[in-house]
Write a structure and sequence with these properties.
Aspartate Aminotransferase, domain 1, alpha+beta, 5 helices
Length: 121
């Protein structure tokens, strides 16, 4: 079934968060609020079934998984911030933020701003 048929793509980010398990909502809201404050000029949408901040193209996404929240700033951001991400599992374009650890909100804000500035050029 496509995402368009499920109605996910027509939700707001807040509606998406409200549709997730109650236990994870505070963490998702914290990430959302942090990115929103860091790049208030970005448009909000759901893309690829994930909360996304957008400006002509996807800037940064996030989404819950079973044991972590995935932050998807793209491969260039993961490479740029690699020295500060050694405590986290990363892969090409993704950072796993374990649910049993405090969220690095300052770092998330820096990554979001970096993505915004880098992608504006």
């Amino acid at each position: 079934m496509s995402l368009a048929k499920t109605g996910v793509e027509s939700m707001t980010i807040r509606e998406y968060i409200d549709s997730q398990e109650e236990s994870i909502r505070p963490r998702l809201n914290a990430i959302y609020d942090t990115i929103r404050a860091a790049i208030p000029e970005a448009e909000e949408r759901l893309s690829w079934g994930m909360p996304t901040f957008w400006k002509g193209h996807n800037i940064i996404h996030f989404a819950p998984a079973k044991k972590h929240i995935g932050l998807y700033p793209g491969p260039e951001a993961v490479e740029f911030f690699a020295p500060r991400l050694t405590e986290y599992k990363t892969s090409k374009g993704a950072i796993q933020l374990p649910n049993n650890r405090e969220l690095p909100l300052e770092l998330i804000a820096e990554i979001a701003r970096w993505c915004w500035e880098t992608n504006r050029k």
